[in-house]
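Quick illustration, no need to memorize.
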Amino acid sequence: MVQAPNIRPRIFDADDPALTAGSERLGVLVVDDDDTVTRFLGDALARMGCDISLAHDFDQAIRQMHVGIDMVVTDLRMPGRDGMDLVRALRESHERAPLHVVMITACRDEETIGLATEAGVDDFLFKPVDPVKLMLVLSRTRRSVRLHRMVQRRNTMLTRTHERMRTLLCRLRDDLDAAAGMHRRLLPREEQLPGLRMTHVYRPATMLGGDTIGAVTVGEGRTLFFLLDVQGHGVRASLASFHYHRRLQQMAPADADALSLAMQRLNREILAGEDEIYATAIAGIVDVPAGEGWIIRAGHPEPLLMQCGGGASGVARPLDTAPAFPLGWFSQADFRATRFPFTAGARLVIYSDGLLDCCEETEIPDAQSLAALLDTCRDQPIAAIGALVERLLARRGGDLPLADDVSLFAIEPDRVSGAFHDRTDP
């Protein structure tokens, strides 16, 4: 037990500004079975800017531990459970708390120091207590507590920021899901296209893509169809493709001349926009009762015209169309419609260049090879084309991200409805 005379109180000066200047108040618990020592150390630490609690044995010290205690100064030798037991108990119950533990002892042997350090002691003060060393211990504690409090504040800020970001991310994901759902709802449905059978594949490279597929009835027996591929991916491309989709539907061209004018108008609108954006496009009209159609290709891969049934073989071929520049390149671009036969057994397939990119990955090097592959479905229902492309995408690895949006749209006269001319092109 430490005797009060050995502490040399004359060193401490309550008026010394160096003791408290710029310091943060710490909560300190002083534990010693000698009441004189606890009061003296408590008074000295209080003058150094600390809030003091006093205890005289193990049990009282445990009861005194509460939120706000930053440092414990304990004697090694105490009746009953000594300072070593107290340190172990404190470390077990305050594993995550920034508690600085200081032991006062007259023992300087390595074994005692080693056991105390292993128990969880951070600093030692040897008897007689040197006030300067006490000041240094307090300074180290302040730095440690200051750092911990700073980390706590930053962790709190990070937690709040994380929660805000998580909330924003959830809202953004909901918005993206809603936008993706709007694009999916634009896809044509067979029940909306009298006199036609159809299939389509629509696989955006990201949640939102720049491709869009559309088809709408524009007159008795006539259907407008199109596939647009807006430059890029993501929100900007998706918004643009959604807008252009609606514009073509609104213009609803019903013949070859109206189709050319609609494409010219859309081209001018894209050029007039502030965004430097462009789109490849393929758009056409089929007249099922007349057994013919018209098509415009603007920077897009060539459409495929297939002849199905009747023992036909090897007849899938690229449709010879008048080439045109992509929409949004040149204001004076010419968009001329090409007429093609759309009689019994005809099957028209249009697709984006993203499909060709996927074909290259699966050892189908060009459009002619793709045509030959699709031609294997000529004696099957048109839905077999969509299923074949889906299998093609699966071959490259279903989890692999797409480099570009993949879109395909195929139509044929409905043989059941009888709403077509069974004739060949003159």
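The chain is about 40% helix and 20% strand.
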